[in-house]
User: Fold this.
Amino acid sequence: MPLFNTKSFLKTRLIPSALWFVAVFSALLCTGCPPTGLCITVPDKRADNFVIQVSDESKGCKGQVVVTRMIVRRVSDDKVFWVIGSVEDVKLDIVHYGVLPAGFDQGMAPLPLQPGDEMNISAQGRGTAGGIAAMVAP
Assistant:
């Protein structure tokens, strides 16, 4: 009889220890780190009242969040339709397309939205970013 039983060692010690290590490591890796994303929604998609809502993912996608830049592009040809930016920490939650929020500069004047165009809205903040695509409604 061998002095060391490999099958028994694998079943009783190595495999359970490895599974325990994976479980603990995964739990440590996935907890305590706040999300670093911006939630972006478009509650009103009409061409004449296109509304963009920006919020903080780490707060359950609620409340105002610091936004430093927002770009609206048409998906079909990647044409830029509107660019706004701020060097100050300005908190936003609702942005009406074409209406410059207080504390922001316009990098590009807004182009008219056309019903049926799919728009890509991207926003950046201090260490955060997010984006969404939305179809412009009539």
